[in-house]
């Protein structure tokens, strides 16, 4: 007769092997494995419909992104291209489940502009600074770290790192010759109204504004004392096995002196050029890190606490965290009642959607932006 102790031992061994089997898969540097959709729990026919939907709903803007950018932001006074751009390819993307590729379409290795997905990379630079104890708290006033006049004055002096990260700072000023009020001004009024508007108390109103995002990038450069692309490469992209084809650009004239060395201050988007240029596969590696709460294999590259903070609803906007969008509040997708989803989003239909509950990730390039909700509805319906 089998003893009770033997049964307990066999149960423990079985549990141990089950836990091992459930360990998340991480791709090697030059090899990302696929599995049949059915093996990952998908209805194959329904998943094919989701992929076809992405192919059929290509972003309607010009493939020459200089033209698309100038048309898209034509209402901004003084708007011009100030940094690198690149003509785009066609629709491309990946659907990842449990770390494995379940479906893909388009050219996955083509390096593309990623626009405001860059903001999620930038937010990560703040998280790494916090983990490295270069920042004591996101609620510290930024002028404790950057005291060159960027945060002088009664209003700007109140601004904390949190306010920059959740885009509620209402920072007022000019950075590299670009005025904050000239970026995405209100549809009503004119130059005088925009210039002399009443400032909002930091932390109260979220306003999407690339100049203020670039102030965050500039401020983090002062903290790191090295170019942010180097920080990203050393601490994130190399450890996750990304290729060497990605780039992170600033505006052509956005250079500053740090410890006697001329360094470029990068942008957090591409609506005047610049930002992160990256392949779909490398974009997915960055996303997979966040799918797994900042851990890659046995390395905690960015703290789980930061991932949670970055993807928690901010007070000014329940649809926004620290430069990650959340599927809740006013920006929740119709027919996708999944408030735990979070995502990076950029001009032209660049998305990295994370569903930690299902160990699911969807990466799209050049999907008509208004169709992302229906795309996710189709993907989730296939599970």
Number of helices: 11
Average pLDDT over all residues: 94
Spell out the CATH superfamily. DD-peptidase/beta-lactamase superfamily
In total, how many beta strands? 14
> What are the low-pLDDT stretches, counting only 5+ consecutive residues below 50?
6-21
Strand arrangement in the largest pleated sheet? 2-1-14-13-12-11
CATH class assignment? Alpha Beta
Radius of gyration: 22 Å
In the CATH classification, which architecture applies?
3-Layer(aba) Sandwich
In one word, what is the shape? globular
Describe what is shown at a glance:
The chain is α+β, with helices and mostly antiparallel strands. Helices cover 31% and strands 16% of the residues. It is built from 11 helices and 14 strands.
Description:
The structure is a single chain. This protein has 383 residues and is α+β, with helices and mostly antiparallel strands. It has a single domain (41-381), classed as 3-Layer(aba) Sandwich (Beta-lactamase). The protein is 31% helix and 16% strand. It has eleven helices and 14 strands. The chain has helices at residues 4-21, 44-56, 65-72, 117-131, 161-165, 191-195, 210-224, 228-237, 280-291, 304-310, 372-381; strands at residues 92-97, 100-105, 112-113, 174-175, 178-179, 247-258, 261-266, 275-278, 295-296, 299-300, 325-326, 342-346, 350-355, 360-365. The strands form four sheets. Strands 2-1-14-13-12-11 form a six-stranded antiparallel beta sheet, sandwiched between helices. The longest helix is centred in the N-terminal third of the chain and has 18 residues, at 4-21. It is globular. The two termini are 44 Å apart. Mean pLDDT is 94; it is low at 6-21.
């Amino acid at each position: 007769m089998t003893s009770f102790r033997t049964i307990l031992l066999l149960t423990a061994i079985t549990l141990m092997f089950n836990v091992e089997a459930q360990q998340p898969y991480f791709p090697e540097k030059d090899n990302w494995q696929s599995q049949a959709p059915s093996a990952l729990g998908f209805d194959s026919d329904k998943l094919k419909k989701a992929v076809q939907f992405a192919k059929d709903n290509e972003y309607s803007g010009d493939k020459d992104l200089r033209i698309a950018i100038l048309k898209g932001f034509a209402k901004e006074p003084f708007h011009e291209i100030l940094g690198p751009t690149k003509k785009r390819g066609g629709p491309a993307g990946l659907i990842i489940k449990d770390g494995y590729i379940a479906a893909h379409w388009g050219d996955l290795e083509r390096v593309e502009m990623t626009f405001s997905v860059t903001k999620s990379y930038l937010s990560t630079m703040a998280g790494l600074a916090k983990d490295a104890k270069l920042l004591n708290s996101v609620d510290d006033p930024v002028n404790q770290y950057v005291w060159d006049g960027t945060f002088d004055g009664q209003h700007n002096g109140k601004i904390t790192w949190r306010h920059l990260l959740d885009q509620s700072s209402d920072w007022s000023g000019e950075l590299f010759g670009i005025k904050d009020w000239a970026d995405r001004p209100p549809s009503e009024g004119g130059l005088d109204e925009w210039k002399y508007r009443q400032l909002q108390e930091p932390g109260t109103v979220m306003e999407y504004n690339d100049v203020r995002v670039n102030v965050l990038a500039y401020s983090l450069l002062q903290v790191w004392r090295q170019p942010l692309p180097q920080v990203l490469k050393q601490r994130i992209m190399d450890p996750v096995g990304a290729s060497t084809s990605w780039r992170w650009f600033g505006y052509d004239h956005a250079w500053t002196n740090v410890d006697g060395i001329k360094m470029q201050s990068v942008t957090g988007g591409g609506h005047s050029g610049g930002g992160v240029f990256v392949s779909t596969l490398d974009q997915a590696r960055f996303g997979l890190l966040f799918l797994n709460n900042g851990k890659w294999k046995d390395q905690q590259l960015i703290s789980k606490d930061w991932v949670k903070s970055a993807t928690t609803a901010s007070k000014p906007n329940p649809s926004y965290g620290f430069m990650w969008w959340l599927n809740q509040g006013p920006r929740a997708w119709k027919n996708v009642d999944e408030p735990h989803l979070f995502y990076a989003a950029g001009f032209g239909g660049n998305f990295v959607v994370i569903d930690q509950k299902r160990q699911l990730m969807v990466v799209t390039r050049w999907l008509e932006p208004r169709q992302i909700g229906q795309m996710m509805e189709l993907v989730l319906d296939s599970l």
